[in-house]
Amino acid sequence: MNSKGRTHAFVVASLYLMLSGPVDARPDASRAALVQAEQVRIKSEPDVILAGELHVPRSGETRKPAVLLLGGGGASPHGIYPLLEARLNAKGIVTLSFDKRGVGQSTGRFDDAMEPAQRDARAALAYLRSRGDLIDKDRIAILGLSQGGVIGPALAVENPPIAAIVALAAPAGERGVMFLDAMRLKLAASGMEAKAVENVIRATRCYLNAVTTTAPRETIASGRMALVQSFVAGGWKQDQAEGAVKTLADPATSSLYTVAASQVLSQLRAPVLALYAADDTVVSSALSLPEARRALSQNKDATIVEMPNVDHGFKPLVLTASGKKDYQGWPISDPATLDLINEWLLHRLLQTAKAK
Prior knowledge:
The protein has helices at 3-13, 29-32, 82-90, 114-130, 147-158, 177-189, 194-211, 217-233, 238-249, 251-257, 261-267, 285-295, 335-355; strands at 35-45, 48-57, 64-70, 94-98, 135-145, 164-168, 272-277, 302-307, 317-319, 325-327. The chain is an alpha/beta fold. The protein has an eight-stranded mixed β-sheet, with helices on both faces. Strand 1 and strand 2 (48-57) form a beta hairpin. The termini are far apart.
């Protein structure tokens, strides 16, 4: 596939998937003196044991508040937010992150569809609640980015009470609609003409409705053919169109189509901090931020903010040694974002203890 073909495939494949890759986030010696890193094994399913790392501050309350940290789409390992963890640990807050199934030391086959990812996060939450020896189960928060930012609110709705939710660059919108709206933007940005874009969107809706339900094989096959033809009519080569449709059929992509993020957010009663990145090229803040505001309008403790000069991973825009501007650093390393999350979480998790 040529570079243009790869770009076309990326338009479909990366609708919401977060950057990922192996990360060495082991604490330095000075931090190790203040924080105990406990290796944990969490059973999610019979063949899936999640390898996690629990960071426990050595000082502070006997039963401490905790934050479950969820990564974005892709092969996300544990420890991808070391700067944030260090700040939370310094305030006496326990943090837990884990390797996704099939990643790092976790067992099972890597599967990035929404359903298994949510089951694994649910198992991690249950583990935190089981650690009454060191964790106050009434002061557990969930923080997630992108895919994790969708899963966190869903867990809070189905497994109350959750003390607080932080959702970063989390797509918001109605089932199917937010997926297709994001796809429409990316197709238009790739240079496809408006009429052709709408034909592709219409064909995608029919195809994914069939793929994600119990539609007969013949219906799925005919929908697939119509979608390939719509891509070709829009200027794509046959192999590019075939590749895009194959990506759409993959459970990791098609499961995104079924997400009803706004419906979940409207049911969320826990305090929520929803942050969006002004320079995000993966999840459009122009699309998701208004939807999040609408869905959270009845939540008495909802804060929604668009952070300037940060990308999808909330890395800051910096001037490199060569004089170019680029987004660099760890995920969630922008100082203003770190300050906001830290202050907001401390108020929800530590003030709760004082009120008891």
